[in-house]
Design a protein that fits this description.
The protein is of the alpha/beta class. Helices cover about 40% and strands about 15% of the residues. Strands 2-8-7-6-5-3-4 form a 7-stranded mixed sheet, sandwiched between helices. A 3-stranded antiparallel sheet has the order 9-10-12. Bound molecules: pyridoxal-5'-phosphate.
């Protein structure tokens, strides 16, 4: 595979930006000197190499904090969103077990959240998993009535990775505050795509990652709100306590510098980019919506502007993804679970049958998507559709 694809022109059109984004060349440019010239360890306090690395990390911390309306000291660097999610949920649960052992989450969360909750359930915690309606929306009254005296945390994502559906974050945080419960938000798919401001939206803990916002893979952030008394979190790793004792391990300075630059670019480009993405996403939808059996999964008016999760309800549609792979890189769900041959838990939670879930495709576009690519995608879908008809 690696031998055959050695230049970009051999690649299909990339419409899987929710799985990962390419690094922006401006991000790569600022990272490069940190591999060779500025290779110091940010924890080396006795020489210039260390000081320079530390300064670069602190600059990136400011850039990232500014994107989400936080203070720099509230940013904890991790290896990605999965680690940040584990640190938030498991860390809060374990450190506060004396106060209660109940956590509320949602059926459409990413596996990184659901699997941690499953682990905690094995450890004796009680997990309430809220259902969603057909459009992927939670019932806020049901959330309110699920809160108990021993509830520690509500874990609800900002925007769904498969459908793009956005939760009413400010309302969820309001309910959490009313009951003195912490609110953790997995904002991996929202940060960099829409304005996310932690203070304004009342978020206590928030996870996100560089590789969904045109930064490198292997670096992410847990935002931890500064407050008195402070939010108590047990670390996952011990060994130096580099990040405010919450996360140990030599910092990935190069990745962090890249994430900082990626955040800075998103901060300035976000509004304009969201409009372009909306236009292109709409172009795709208008191009295929009249095809037989086509419908939108989720609530379109309450969604990220870069995602279309489409159900192709015609016989044999489960073969569509395969037919399209030569022309477009798309997926049937999240990258983390699409390798497993099981229907999407997100679509199932929204009431789709196994067959409908297998007949759904997620198209996610991004900064480098062009109108020409969208038009080619529409043509490829139409062509594959006609082939489906002839196979049957
Ligand atoms: N949460 C959501 C909503 C995601 O889409 C992803 C990545 O697919 C993750 C968490 C995990 O992120 P990372 O790859 O940085 O661990």
């Amino acid at each position: 595979m690696l031998d055959t694809i050695d230049d970009m022109s051999a690649y299909p059109i990339y419409l899987d930006y929710n799985a990962t984004t390419p690094c922006d060349p401006r991000v790569v440019e600022v990272m490069m000197p940190f591999f060779t010239q500025h290779f110091g360890n940010a924890a080396s306090k006795s020489h210039a190499h260390g000081w320079f690395a530390e300064e670069a990390v602190e600059y990136a911390r400011e850039q990232i904090a500014s994107l989400i309306g936080a203070d720099a000291q509230e940013i904890v660097f991790t290896s990605g969103a999965t680690e940040a999610i584990n640190l938030a949920i498991r860390g809060v649960a374990e450190k506060n077990a004396h106060k209660g052992k109940h956590i509320i989450t949602v059926a459409t969360e990413h596996k990184a959240v659901l699997d941690v909750c499953e682990y905690l359930a094995d450890q004796g915690y009680e997990i309430t998993v809220l259902p969603v309606d057909k459009q992927g929306i939670i019932d806020l009254d049901q959330l309110r009535s699920s809160i108990r005296k021993d509830t520690l945390l509500i874990a609800a994502m900002y925007a769904n990775n498969e459908t793009g559906v956005i939760h009413p974050i400010a309302k969820i945080s309001e309910i959490a505050k009313e009951h003195d419960v912490l609110f953790f938000c997995d904002a991996t798919q929202a940060v960099g795509k829409k304005p996310v401001k932690v203070k304004h939206e009342g978020i206590d803990l928030m996870a996100f990652t560089a590789h969904k916002m045109y930064g490198p893979k292997g670096v992410g952030v847990l935002y931890v709100k500064k407050q008195t008394p402070k939010i108590e979190i047990a670390p996952l790793l011990y060994g130096g306590g580099h990040e405010r004792k919450l996360r140990s391990g030599t910092l990935n300075v190069t990745g962090i510098v890249g994430m900082g630059k990626a955040a800075e670019i998103c901060n300035t480009a976000l509004d304009q980019e969201a409009q372009t993405l909306y236009r292109l996403n709409n172009l795709l939808w208008e191009g295929i919506r009249s095809l037989e059996g086509v419908s939108w999964n989720g609530k379109r008016e309450q969604s990220l502007s870069n995602v279309s999760n489409i159900l192709f309800a015609v016989p044999g549609a489960d073969r569509l993804l395969k037919l399209l792979t030569k022309t477009i890189s798309v997926s049937s769900g999240s990258a983390c679970s699409s390798a497993i041959a099981s229907p999407s838990h997100v679509l199932k939670a929204m009431g789709l049958t196994d067959e409908e879930a297998y007949s759904s495709i997620r198209f996610s576009i991004g900064r480098f998507t062009t109108e020409e690519e969208i038009n080619k995608t529409i043509d490829a879908i139409k062509l594959s559709y006609s082939k489906l008809n002839s196979i049957i």
